[in-house]
Amino acid sequence: MTWAGLIIALVGALGYAVGAALQQYEAVAEGASFRLVRRRRWWIGGIIGFTGACLHAVALSLAPLVAVQPISVATLVFAVPLAAFMYGRRPYRAEILGSIAVAVGLLWLMLLVPEHNVTPRLSSGAALGFIAVIGLIVLVTQLIATRVHGPNKALLLSVGAGVVTASVSTFVRVVGGGMQGDWGRLLHWFTLAVPVLLVCAVVLLQRSYAVGYFGIAYAGVQVIDPITSVLAGALLLGEPLPTSPSTAIPALLASALTI
């Protein structure tokens, strides 16, 4: 079943990359506004991306996370060339090399994170504090982004989108991992926080895409999302991080490669 999961994850990664490239093309043309909902291509991109995300969830039910997650991160290598193709040009060498470096660095870093079987627990106070920190990061990046232009603006906006996307993953992890077969545990405000944060993430993603530097925006999200998720898991949910020299040093090297 592991190979089936890996194949499904690869198809899902391709779908997510195609969806992101399509939505970025429309976001640049129309801006991050409600006009996007009238664009057929934007909806097609959203449906394809959502399908890719669903396939990723299916893959996780068939194969271990440490095998599926690296394939998911590889969407960066697919998405940047696709976006360049849509604009009728070949991807620049810097885009290709940068995408590969980020993907390899993240895969390396994710594989060094220890496995765990801890049931996630998060108090309401800690959750509210987490949301406040995420909101502060978004506010600061949005304010600074209004004063810069070009790739710097795309990068700042992608940081905000990445941390919110990570917050969605964190709450999904708490809600899904904490159910343990008890559907009554879904009756919690954490469950309602997931769609609200998801909508915020989509809006912030479109704003970062609309700047026009898709490679930078997409890479920024792909870097910030998993790193924020791992930190949230370690600080809030008690999940382990690499601490021994045999794993900590490679983790630092992987982080340097990613940056």
From TrEMBL:
InterPro entries: EmrE-like
Protein name: DMT family transporter
Region forming the signal peptide: none
NCBIfam families: DMT_1 (NF038012)
Residue ranges of the TM segments: 6-22, 42-62, 68-87, 94-113, 125-145, 154-174, 186-205, 212-237
Organism superkingdom: Bacteria
Transferase is among the record's keywords: no
Keywords, in A-Z order: Membrane, Transmembrane, Transmembrane helix
UniProt KW Zinc keyword: no
